[in-house]
Amino acid sequence: MGQISHTPGGDGAHSQGVPNQLAAKSADSLEERVERAPTLLVVAAAVVAFVVSVANFALGNLSLGVNVASIGLLVVGGGLSWLAMERRRVRQAEREWLSNPPARP
C-alpha cells in the first residue's frame, strides 16, 4: 500500500488516495466474484446431484442413487480443486505484485 501523508499541508495524498483505494478494492472484489462464479456453479451442481442421489435412495433406486452420488463426488472434487487452483493463482499474483509494485507516475 502507498504511504499516506498525515501532516498538515501535505501533498493531499490522503484525500485523493481513499476514493481511489475504494474503487480499486471494489473492482478487485468484483473480479474475484466473476472468477469464482463458474466454480461455485459447479459446486452447486454437485449439491443438486447429492439431493437427487438421496431422493433415489429414498425411492429404492439403489443403482441410480450410487451412480448419481459417484458423479456428485467427482463434481465436488473438481469444483473444489478448481476453486483452490484459482485462489492459489490469485495469491501468487498478489505476491508478485507486492514484491515488484508498478512504478508511480
Tell me the span between the first and last alpha carbons. Answer: 15 Å
- The class by helix and strand makeup works out as mainly alpha
How many structural domains in the coordinates?
1
What Rg is obtained from the alpha carbons, in whole angstroms? 23 Å
- The proportion of residues forming helix, as a percent range, comes to over 70%
Total of DSSP H or I helical runs spanning 4+ residues: 2
Shape: rod-shaped
Order of H and E elements: HH
Q: Give a short account of the largest sheet.
A: none
Q: What is the mean pLDDT?
A: 75
Strand tally: 0
Q: In percent terms, what proportion of residues is strand?
A: under 5%
Sequence stretches where pLDDT stays below 50 over 5 or more residues: 5-15
Detailed description of the structure:
The structure is a single chain. The chain is mainly α and 105 residues long. The chain has one domain (13-99). It contains 2 helices and no strands. It has helices at 13-59, 62-99. The protein starts with 12 loop residues before the first helix and ends in a 6-residue tail after the last helix.
